[in-house]
Amino acid sequence: MRHLLSTKSLTRDEAITLLDIAEDMADVANREVKKLPTLRGKTVVNLFFEDSTRTRISFEAAAKRLSADVINFSAKGSSVSKGESLKDTAQTLAAMGADGVVIRHPASGAPQVLAGSGWIDAGIINAGDGTHEHPTQALLDAFTIRRRLHGTASRGRGLDGVTVTIVGDILHSRVARSNLWLLDTLGAQVTFIAPPTLVPADTSAWPATIGYDLDAAIDAGPDVVMMLRIQAERMNAAFFPNSREYSRRWGLDDERFARLSSHSIVMHPGPMNRGLEISSAAADSERSTVREQVANGVSVRMAALYLLLSGDREEH
Amino acid sequence: MRHLLSTKSLTRDEAITLLDIAEDMADVANREVKKLPTLRGKTVVNLFFEDSTRTRISFEAAAKRLSADVINFSAKGSSVSKGESLKDTAQTLAAMGADGVVIRHPASGAPQVLAGSGWIDAGIINAGDGTHEHPTQALLDAFTIRRRLHGTASRGRGLDGVTVTIVGDILHSRVARSNLWLLDTLGAQVTFIAPPTLVPADTSAWPATIGYDLDAAIDAGPDVVMMLRIQAERMNAAFFPNSREYSRRWGLDDERFARLSSHSIVMHPGPMNRGLEISSAAADSERSTVREQVANGVSVRMAALYLLLSGDREEH
Amino acid sequence: MRHLLSTKSLTRDEAITLLDIAEDMADVANREVKKLPTLRGKTVVNLFFEDSTRTRISFEAAAKRLSADVINFSAKGSSVSKGESLKDTAQTLAAMGADGVVIRHPASGAPQVLAGSGWIDAGIINAGDGTHEHPTQALLDAFTIRRRLHGTASRGRGLDGVTVTIVGDILHSRVARSNLWLLDTLGAQVTFIAPPTLVPADTSAWPATIGYDLDAAIDAGPDVVMMLRIQAERMNAAFFPNSREYSRRWGLDDERFARLSSHSIVMHPGPMNRGLEISSAAADSERSTVREQVANGVSVRMAALYLLLSGDREEH
Predict the structure, then answer these.
(1) C31 interface with A at CB cutoff 8 Å
(2) From the list C77, C84, C88, which residue is nearest B51 (CB)?
(3) C265, C287 in Cβ contact below 8 A?
(4) Alpha-carbon distances, residue A168 vs A147, A232, B31, B92, C295 (angstroms)
(5) ipTM of this model?
(6) In angstroms, what separates the C-alpha of C86 from chain A's closest C-alpha?
(7) Does residue A79 sit at the C interface (CB-CB below 8 Å)?
(8) Average pLDDT, stretch C95-121?
């Protein structure tokens, strides 16, 4: 694998390989010395055009656990913010010897431009681009579901037949998109539930069922209910009337949580708006995988960095 | 020791153990390679809800000298500043595998909440919480006093009978509070000198003498005179008339400095307002320990990180 | 060498030694593990009073490739921005055990003050001070010219007889000044071309020819044309009428680029204003050394850190 730009372009075999390597990486966390020498002498640049402390420190922890050197490059206050082109930034990082670039960018497609440009030979990982994709988030979600379902017997498996209901702001969510393609590739069945104003205009090509009624979706007994974070600015932009109304119709409140079938798990990419899209009881219950998702995020990102930067990297 | 939250809760034995380990750590700075492998594979997160470059880089230098990986997490511009709860932040850091969390927070008690919560198993070090405590500052001060008094024969000793006069904004100072409890535990006698407006309403439970007259306090010939930094915002809030007046009544100016008894040492936690609470002559004299305090800060923080994160850590 | 403060004070032998060591450092980038253990246990502080992400990450990459620990200290939001003196900052870094300090400061002469003060024993590298000097930029430029001219036979050589034309805002440019002194020391001949408003009042002591006519300078067939970045704020301050006018008279546009003699190389310190002082065709051509300059920057900075911080450092 040369780059990790989207889940849409991942084959089933590639996805399962990545999840299996992440299983090995998760074992490192249980060692006496939680560190592998694998990427010693490699340099990973976190190139963040948007603030995202959680994602940045997850990648930073992953890279350091593999003994890579990490350089944080926040675009704020840099020449980038003074209008330097992505091309010049990329060529600068290439010239400095970056082996991997983790990029978060407000423009959908920026990581693809970077990877396809020839400006830089480094492995590119998309850490979120506009409303497009956030592939490591979807991979950590799939990893988390697979582990909950199959435990130590997860290796080699997909998610065939697993039913996943994703609830919230589908229109703006790169997490929803990345999950959609990966879950479909792995054999799961996806249902989206959202306010009508927060569903894209054309979803005809999406391998998913779209609905508006969370109560009906819950009564269908999905294996997984994934709540998305609702951004305050959506409310201000009149996508829904107010937070109470949103919570009443599309929130996983205590009453809905109680009605979930006994085997269902509850996911959230974080950070949560407790009391808005998810109640504290749901967030903190045994069924919630919120903390596992964060821990698995480090393992999945170690796997991605390993695949892209180690000696085994695919030839150009 | 599981956490380092306050000096008030330290026993005399614990405090002396910590100071003695800091003596060992100070020796590392004289080595050819100033680095110990002790915390290799451990991750220390600097979780700073307030800016404090000096304290952050002191902990960062200490952790790196012990070969730990360091991740800086400034709450500004992060999801924390968008209202993420301390609980969710803590669980995120726990899930990412943080072994130690150094926390600076504007709210008194935040580190205690973190340590007592069960949200995270990491060792917590309070790097300053509101007006409450700043224990590593007090420990480095005690370490500095002990070294000045006893030199290489310091190990195992307390500060019995040492007289310490602390001057300035006692009302708002966590440094004053942490010093009070630790100095008392180690057997020293503490006098606070401050403008009446900058003394807490009820100090009846404090093992200290409170006074307002710096000249009388200096004529008493204390072993240690510790000047606190005066914040410009206190003046604006009318706690005292103006900086000239403050300096005239509560500053260690050249005249008062000349009257100090010959064995007295002068301390300041930094950064200093030269010409306000301390004159340059006092700050730069042989008696001043300002630079030693900074150097000893790294040693004391190495000791704290070692006690909390090494294999010898107390069981939960 | 104890400090690297300016190129004006470098002897020819010192400069060539530094460039030769940079040749060795450039070889490290081609190794399987791109890392030397040379500075293990040393601490390098990037002390930046001005933002400069490019320069900061170049030094950070250089220091990490030599296995030093790196601490980034941005003056923004620190006690420095609250008025702490350079003296107190320096003494703090000294006390924390900084072995090297890379300083960028808006005031011309600040690094010299730091180095000459006795406040800190660390090796000081000037990473840009006001309009004064930026020595590692000039060294990487000289390194780049030497490599283009002599390839693998560069070691030991100067730049005797090489003609270099530097174009743009000479008045404010520390890059221009550092290049002037170094190029002269190495035997090159320097011509400055600039708008009359952007030439210093008195250049009588400068070993350079000053001119205003870029077309004539290009027709003279220099070996090197170095375009300087033009700051938008100069335009606002009426140093020249507007960007179109600047570009028309002092920009390396496609027409001028086509008239360059066949052996000339085109340099730019970055970040470039494409279409203003340099056209994209010129910036991206085979003759452009822009990317080599960035790569060579890491090698030159490794050489400087090595000379200042390794065991071979000159005695005080």
Answers:
(1) yes
(2) C77
(3) yes
(4) 24, 13, 57, 22, 46
(5) 0.91
(6) 23
(7) yes
(8) 95
- Residue C316: predicted pLDDT: 40
Domain C135-289, CATH: 3.40.50.1370
Residues of A in contact with C290 (CB under 8 A): 91
- The mean pLDDT value of chain B amounts to 93
Q: How many residues are present in chain B? A: 316
Domain B135-292 coded CATH 3.40.50.1370: yes
Residues 6+ apart with CB under 8 A from A55: A104, A127, A128
For B263, other C-beta atoms within 10 Å of its C-beta total: 12
Chain C: partners with 3+ C-beta pairs within 8 Å = A, B
A71: nearest CB among C33, C60, C294: C60
Tell me whether C57 touches chain A (CB under 8 Å). Answer: yes
* Domain boundaries A12-134+294-309, corresponding CATH code: 3.40.50.1370
pLDDT tier for residue B83 given thresholds of 50, 70 and 90:
low
Give CA–CA dist C58/C56, Å, rounded.
Answer: 5
Q: List chain B domain ranges.
A: 12-133+294-309, 135-292
Nearest to A68 by CA among A312, A314, A306, A313: A306
- C43 forms beta bridges with C69
Interchain CB contact of C42 with B (< 8 Å): yes
- pLDDT for B231 equals 83
The yes-or-no answer to whether B12-133+294-309 and B135-292 have a common fold is yes
List C-alpha distances in Å: B231 to A88, B129, B173, B289, B297.
44, 16, 10, 21, 22
Judged by a CB distance cut-off of 8 A, whether residue A73 touches chain C is yes
Which residues in chain A have their CB less than 8 angstroms from residue B45's CB?
Answer: 57
Distance of CA C158 to the CA centre of its chain: 17
Topology classification of domain B12-133+294-309:
Rossmann fold (3.40.50)
Radius of gyration from C-alpha coordinates of chain B: 19
> Is position B55 annotated in a ligand binding site?
yes
B20 Cβ neighbours under 8 A, 6+ residues apart = B155, B156
Nearest residue in C to A68, CA atom: C64
Task: Work out the percent of chain A whose per-residue pLDDT is above 70.
Answer: 96
**Residue B234 reports pLDDT greater than 80:** no
Q: Which chain B residues have a beta carbon less than 8 Å from that of C43?
A: 34, 61, 64
Asked if B58 is an interface residue toward chain C (Cβ–Cβ < 8 A), one would say yes
Read off the pLDDT of each residue in B85-107 and give the average, rounded to a whole number: 94
* DSSP 8-state assignment for residue C18: H
| Residue A146 known to bind ligand | no
Tens-digit pLDDT profile for residues C268-293: 999 999 999 999 999 999 999 999 99
Q: What is the pLDDT of residues B101-160, one digit of tens each?
A: 999 999 999 999 999 998 999 999 999 999 999 999 999 999 999 999 999 899 999 999
For residue C151 the two structure tokens come to: 């390839």
